[in-house]
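Quick one, T. Sequence first:
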Amino acid sequence: MRLSPDAMFGQERPSDITGRSIRGSGATFTSQIIRFVMQTASTVVLARLLTPDDYGIVAMVAVVIGFAQVFASAGLSAATVQREHITREQIDSLFWVNLAVSGVIAGGVLASAPLVAAFYRSPPLAAVTAALAASFVISGIAVQHDALLRRHMEFRSLAVIQVGAQLVNIVVTVALALLGCGYWALVGGSLSLALANSVLTIYYCPFIPRRPRRGVGVRGMLLFGGHLTAFDFVNYFARTADNILVGRFLGADALGLYSRAYSLFMLPISQIRGPVAQVGMPALSALREQPERFRRYYSRVLDLMAVLTVPLGVYCALEADFVVRVLLGSQWMGLVGTFRILAIVGIIQPAASTVGLVLVSQGHAARQLRLGLVTSAAVVGGFVAGLPFGIEGVAAGYAIASYVAVIPSVWYSYRDSPVRLSDFAGAMWPAMGSAAVAAGFAMGASALLPAHSALGGLSALAVFAVAYGVMTFARSSVRETLRLVWRHRQTGVGS
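Structure tokens:
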């Protein structure tokens, strides 16, 4: 429902954190399932309407756009969610700061368009970069509106916004692709997504900003946001250095294959990781002064992340050729090896990324920045080392760096917090063990049927899902979480 103007400011955080989280997560995960189905369907359709070169051109520009997006919110959205108390005057000021930053970034991206085209030696990139610059102003208008919805845990409204914007994006992109617009279909879809998201967000949070004032206590929020922005910049550079290197040295076609493999790898993971972070951040921020409740809540978040993402990584690594053939088509089989390696990263990376929830909710933005500098250097080093071996080498470098860094990163992030390294291990090992056993059953099933057949692939999927589901449900912690979810969904009673 729409957030009442009277409830936006000066309100204490809700006491029923667990109940609100569970009820909100129900709406959030439902929306993610809907979005996953829509996005999967659009991926299947667009893979047959567009070429690797089309995706490669947009992926080259996406590096620049994503880099600029790191600065768009200036970390002030998270500052609004994390802060214990906020006032109307503070949000007024932050709105204008966000809008000013967005305008400056849009101008900078527009000015950089010729440089982007020259760097990649591809003239069409100038027009694409210029067109996408408009998305920053469109999105910047609604940054604080979105933050207020998250702070007040209005997850049902956020779910409607996400589904509605995604639907607009898919309709526009597919329509333009059917009209033969090529890479401009992806550009048009991106702009429509930003516009739909902002319009819907402002509708559900009818906050009308007033002129900014000095001396309202935003300095600390700006400092907090600055640390987060610096971390996001470092983290984004590490996550996109592979695209920069592949596009610059291996070309648009190679980047098209690599970016499709990465997008396919992230498709299911992002549908899980996004809702977990969306629900978990405001809840953990509210619990940071209650160590035991904080640890219990985070342990459930971590366990849920591991239970849902570890099997995805194991299955995709096992059946990469089947997944690519079904979802993208035979013309994309050249990315199977890369996708398989990235899926191996997907076994551990989503759960490891939850350390950010601990750091930000505990107010350790500076520590998160230091951690990001070290891990990003390791990841970029892996990309560079793997580049001579093509896109599979780049993916392998990413995988090795990710696994080497995971334990030190988790330990450093949990230090001086209620969470322990044993909590991470306690969530990961059962999920990894169950997935490994399920993979063995799936391999046995597929060995009995013709190789590379649809029947064999579907049988392996069914056996894997059933075996993993049975072993996972046998865990008492999983059953306890399910009972808790059911109780809150039925009664709405908090704890």
